[in-house]
Design a protein that fits this description.
binds protoporphyrin IX containing FE; 355 residues; mainly alpha; disordered N terminus; 0% strand
Length: 355
């Protein structure tokens, strides 16, 4: 019976959990993160043939590459779940956290590219990217396998307090996110409609009172979220909890990357108006630009995970208020499906589709 079938790491009599080969297996999420930029390159090659003619075979290859790149974070989710265990060794805990981190590969790769540009470091982002994940893998690989004392499953009062604060801040942030995503959905009606709605929205969220509060609230939510994820990652968790933590990790990386791109790089440093043209990578567009293609999984999963993370929170609140788990789970699954459809619709508009 393989390690995966068990779904848990075998614990030998001596407490040592893994042979070298098995330890390497748990670094698959890091390997997937390292491969991520090359899947995007393969997509770009497939959609920009030298002859200019795109054959059906090329389109299929392109679609498979983009799908694989967008699905790569799911590998991290699956491994994080498989690594859930009551008393993990340092190796197992670090491997689990690395799996969670790998879920955020799409925004982290955007941040690597933008960051190197802002710091005027004239090197390609791929070797830097690979070195980061290699260093993280070595940090995991060379960690002790001694079992750590099991953490009490009871949540410390401080964590319970942060959870409530996190929930309240989420309700406020939801107001902006609901407007923001509706604004991008309207991109399907054309850039003029998108611009008109954004102009109206800016009178509120760009005001000198609201904008600092919005940005501070977003960063506060990220900090509290990371604190909660760090704590929860030490405890055994069911698939719903692992999904909640994983989508939270993605959002933490997405929000920091997105704010850096919009407020620091575009507005403050390059004095670019962060309008539809900026978001859609005009004039080349997101699909045909070798750099901007990384924004497709980044944005698509950003939309999906923000809605899915909110629905995961709602599921927890419903169950805590006595709603049957079966009903709460159905609402959760419907919310995820709706989040996926909204993400596909927004991305179709950003990539040129119109209704
Ligand atoms: C398809 C996905 C998304 C796209 C294309 C997008 C695009 C944009 C654009 C164009 C701006 C500049 C707005 C302006 O100048 O008025 C912006 C700002 C911002 N976005 Fe997004 N966004 C996306 C998803 C998200 C998500 C999921 C969140 C939250 C979790 C988010 C949070 C923000 C925040 C906080 C700002 C700064 C607002 C400001 O201070 O001007 N975005 N985004």
């Amino acid at each position: 019976m393989s390690v995966f079938e068990q779904g848990r790491i075998r614990t030998g009599d001596n407490g040592l959990a893994n042979t070298k080969a098995e330890k390497l297996l748990w670094l698959i999420p890091a390997a997937a993160a390292m491969a991520y930029p090359f899947l995007l390159d393969a997509f770009h090659l497939a959609v920009s043939p030298a002859s200019g003619e795109t054959s059906a075979a090329r389109l299929v290859i392109a679609a498979l590459c983009l799908l694989a790149a967008t699905a790569a974070p799911l590998l991290g989710l699956a491994c994080a779940w498989r690594l859930t265990k009551a008393a993990p060794s340092s190796f197992e805990l670090r491997a689990r956290r690395l799996a969670y981190l790998s879920i955020a590969a799409p925004p982290l790769f955007v941040l690597t590219g933008v960051g190197l540009g802002l710091l005027h470091i004239p090197v390609s982002d791929k070797p830097v990217w690979i070195m980061i994940w290699l260093a993280a893998s070595l940090y995991v690989l060379f960690s002790s396998e001694q079992e750590r004392p099991a953490k009490s499953a009871a949540i410390a009062p401080s964590i319970a307090k942060w959870r409530v604060t996190h929930g309240i801040a989420a309700a406020v942030i939801l107001l902006y996110v609901a407007f923001h995503l509706t604004n991008h959905l309207l991109g399907l009606l054309g850039p003029e409609v998108h611009a008109a709605v954004m102009k109206a929205g800016r009178t509120v969220y760009r005001s000198s009172v609201i904008e600092p509060i919005l940005v501070a609230l977003m960063l506060f939510q990220v900090a509290v979220g990371v604190r909660l994820a760090w704590r929860w990652s030490t405890l055994p968790a069911d698939a719903y909890r692992v999904f909640q933590i994983g989508s939270g990790v993605y959002l933490a990386a997405f929000i920091v990357t997105h704010l850096n791109s919009a407020l620091v790089s575009a507005r403050a440093v390059h004095h670019i108006d962060t309008n539809w043209d900026w978001a859609s990578g005009a004039p080349t567009g997101l699909i045909h630009d070798a750099w901007s293609i990384r924004l497709v999984p980044h944005y698509a999963l950003g939309v999906f995970f923000v809605l899915a993370h909110l629905v995961s929170g709602l599921r927890g609140v419903l169950i805590a208020h006595g709603v049957a788990a079966a009903i709460a789970n159905r609402i959760w699954a419907t919310g995820l499906a709706a989040g996926g459809l909204v993400a596909i619709a927004i991305m179709s508009g950003l990539c040129g589709a119109r209704i």
